[in-house]
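Run log, item B.
One chain of 414 residues. Sequence copied directly from the ordering sheet:
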Amino acid sequence: MGAARDAVQLGLLLAFFAIGVQWMRNTDGGQQFLFATRQYILELLSPEHKTLRGTTTKASSPGEALQPEAVRKAAPAVRPEGHEMKCNEEIPAYSSVTSNKIQIFAQGFYKGKVHDSDEHWWMYRIEFKNTGRQRVQLLTRHWLFVDANGKTTEVKGPGARGMTPKLGPGRSHSYESGTPLKTDRGSMYGSFQFQILKYEDGSKPLRPHMFSARVGRLALSPDNAPITVPCGEETPEGMVALTSVFVTDRVIVGVTSSFQQSISPDKADAAAQARFGELALSEAVRRKGGGQAMRFIVDVQVNNGRDQTVNVKRVLWHVSDGLAPAITAEREGVMSIGQNGSPRKPVAYTLGQNEALRYEDYIDIATRTAIVEGEMIVEIDPEDDDDGDGLLHVFIAPFALNVEGEPIPDPTID
């Protein structure tokens, strides 16, 4: 009788355990507990399984998008004198770092001086390898390019060369790109942000889980030889960078601004075909009481990391130049700058699954600095939309405009 009773109790215990596991997999709080427990057990069993516990960031609600900036800043700090940075030391023209089970190899190649320019150009090759047991997708990148004088150019954007690759265990992806510097030597380093698609056991996260994987610092030298160059610094807290990136349901928008030229009122006709340009210029000149306005080029990159096609219908810019009220302007689609520097008429643009779009827009302001944020209205399948209207509002995170090409103070912080 005792053995039979024990068997019944064990069966009931196992049944309750199975029900508990199922509940944990299908509720937010339960899944968080299950994920943390699984990671903890794996760490106890083998040091090889130390992956994302403590460095993975989750959204606080099902509809809240995880943002690369928060994920990157939540990662453990890297020591300047450590092997990834080697500040004040000679570094080679390549690096290899594994963090959060993503191995990233980077190598730079000098391509020469740009014709009729004081810029030097490098090509760089990046290779990712997923050394873990989870299926992940690359969503965003963050680069810091530093010249020989320590001037840092910070770039945030979606994907890698127009791609948001998905990497299963043991899978790799590589791409090539390039960057200019004002000096004939410098360095680069950064990170990539990934989202977990499937855990080791094949289960999918109920909420997005993201983590950051670092790229070690490498030299950009004229003969691809090891050199000693400044480390540089990213935009400090309390300042707004010239670049930003934001993820909304795996539609990713990255922007980077640069000053182009000052514009006088008689140039207004050149912008007449572009509704926003005409509006912004006249508003800028009016605020300034005549005289010149400042024109900025905005490099816009959009990646569709979703499994469905999306259609960019409208783009809105909200420009705060310190003169109330803020300028709000709308484009009926995507607008680009033509080869002659004049704007083209905005058009709707369709992005297929995992496709990317890159174009240049422009903004005119009455002052030398401003802060801009925006929104893209994207058409999606109504069945994939919680609101049922078939529209996804994709946020464009705040970024700075500055004639001097430097970050500016964040006015929202006292």
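Observations after the first pass:
- Confidence is low (pLDDT under 50) at residues 23-65, 268-278.
- The first strand starts at residue 57 and ends at 58.
Flagged for discussion on Thursday.
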